[in-house]
């Protein structure tokens, strides 16, 4: 009876505000709890909590036995109370992962909150909030694909992230302006659980570099340092904007990536298999997912500006091996693509429709004007 009473009390606690989603990644219907922290969490996050037993003691809400003191502790705490405590000094630029994000981001977020208490003590945020950071990252070579140790320097004052091919080099190999910088974790693509893809604009074309660090905290600190630098840059560039307006612009995950076939502008040559990345309004295609530069980029505007996406290919189309076609209509021309499966086709069409249904921002008209369609 006592066991049943405890379980019923815990299930009732899950109905309280804040407890219906995981305290750490917002996954719905958490079924686990940390009875030392007083929070309700999902199965995935419970696995991370188990790795820090000195901080967090985990139990299943429905399957494990609970004593009255533990249930009382959960009742007097809960997700909202823990958030007020452990996220009290969370900087607006710090990336809060969700259940859709990679394991590394979720693990470091949980460790930062409860183990290192970075958002209770502001001085512990120095590695990513100081406006300057330097260190060594393993960087993939553009031509040979080998990862080599390279020195990176991020400086808000100079408005740039730089890397050097030699430790004593006076001149950097590349200068990436904070204004045009993006970083996104890509463990599967890079083949490393700590793999980070950094992109920047070079002559209005996107350049990719792929890096990692053996230490998970180190690479996540780099990621948040880049976000902090972009946050402070945007605060100056848009003085009237609120944090809520600026935070979504600090870094972006790709809307979709994957293989499709494409043909050239005359639509007479054969279709070639390419890796495609939808980055905001830029649809880029690469021969290999880890190429430094795209073979070409297509700007996807809005429906008000005569952009549309159609299922299928024109009847006269030839040369595609894959049968599930997509036609993108722009003011200048049509782009023809083919997907391997029906599911792929529907996912790409949904992604394109989301972009096309969004009205263009003033700065996007400038991007469209500069954009060179590369065949």
Description:
The chain has about 375 residues and is α+β, with helices and mostly antiparallel strands. It has three domains: about 1-85, Arf GTPase activating protein (Annexin V, domain 1), CATH 1.10.220.150; about 130-250, PH-domain like, CATH 2.30.29; about 255-375, PH-domain like (Roll), CATH 2.30.29. Helix content is about 30%, strand content about 25%. A seven-stranded antiparallel β-sheet has the order 7-6-5-4-10-9-8. The protein has a seven-stranded antiparallel β-sheet with strand order 14-13-12-11-17-16-15, covered by helices on one side. β4 (about 130-140) and β5 form a beta hairpin. The longest helix is centred in the middle third of the chain and has 22 residues, at about 215-235. The radius of gyration is 24 Å and the shape is globular. The protein starts with a helix and ends in a 5-residue tail after the last helix.
In terms of topology, how is this protein built?
Layout: H1 2-13, E1 32-34, E2 39-41, H2 43-50, E3 58-60, H3 68-76, H4 79-86, H5 103-115, H6 126-129, E4 132-140, E5 147-155, E6 160-164, E7 174-177, E8 182-185, H7 187-190, E9 196-202, E10 205-212, H8 216-237, H9 243-246, E11 256-262, E12 272-279, E13 282-286, E14 296-299, E15 308-311, E16 324-329, E17 334-339, H10 342-356, H11 362-370
Domain PH: 130-231, 253-357
Subcellular location: Cytoplasm
Pfam families: ArfGap, PH
State the gist of this model.
One of its GO terms (cellular component) is plasma membrane. The protein has 375 residues and is an alpha+beta fold. 29% of the residues lie in helices and 25% in strands.
């Amino acid at each position: 009876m006592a066991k049943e009473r405890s379980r019923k009390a815990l299930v009732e606690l899950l109905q309280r505000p804040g407890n219906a989603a995981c305290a750490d990644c917002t996954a719905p219907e958490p079924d686990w709890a940390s009875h030392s922290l007083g929070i309700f969490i999902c199965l995935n996050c419970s696995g991370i909590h188990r790795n820090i037993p000195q901080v967090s003691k985990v139990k299943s809400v429905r399957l494990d036995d609970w004593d009255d003191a533990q249930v009382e502790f959960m009742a007097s705490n809960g997700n909202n109370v823990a958030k007020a405590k452990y996220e009290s000094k969370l900087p607006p630029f710090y990336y809060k992962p969700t259940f859709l994000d990679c394991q590394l981001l979720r693990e470091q977020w949980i460790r930062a909150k409860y183990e290192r208490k970075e958002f209770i003590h502001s001085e512990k945020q120095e590695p990513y909030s100081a406006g300057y950071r330097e260190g060594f990252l393993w960087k993939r070579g553009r031509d040979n694909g080998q990862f080599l140790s390279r020195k990176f320097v991020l400086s808000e004052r100079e408005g740039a992230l730089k890397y050097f091919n030699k430790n004593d080099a006076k001149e950097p190999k590349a200068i990436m302006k904070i204004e045009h910088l993006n970083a996104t974790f890509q463990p599967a693509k890079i083949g490393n659980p700590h793999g980070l893809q950094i992109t920047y604009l070079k002559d209005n074309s996107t350049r990719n570099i792929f890096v990692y660090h053996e230490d998970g905290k180190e690479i996540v600190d780099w990621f948040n340092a880049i976000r902090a630098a972009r946050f402070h840059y945007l605060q100056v560039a848009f003085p009237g904007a609120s944090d809520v307006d600026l935070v979504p612009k600090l870094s972006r995950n790709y809307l979709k990536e994957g293989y499709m076939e494409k043909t050239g502008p005359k639509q007479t040559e054969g279709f070639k298999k390419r890796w495609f990345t939808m980055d905001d309004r830029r649809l880029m295609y690469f021969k290999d997912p880890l190429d430094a530069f795209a073979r070409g980029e297509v700007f996807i505007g809005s429906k008000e500006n005569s952009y549309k996406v159609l299922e299928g290919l024109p009847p006269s189309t030839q040369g595609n091996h894959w049968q599930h076609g997509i036609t993108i209509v722009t003011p200048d021309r049509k782009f023809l693509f083919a997907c391997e499966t029906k599911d792929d086709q529907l996912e790409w069409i949904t992604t394109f429709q989301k972009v096309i249904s969004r009205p263009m921002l003033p700065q996007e008209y400038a991007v469209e004007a500069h954009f060179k369609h590369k065949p």
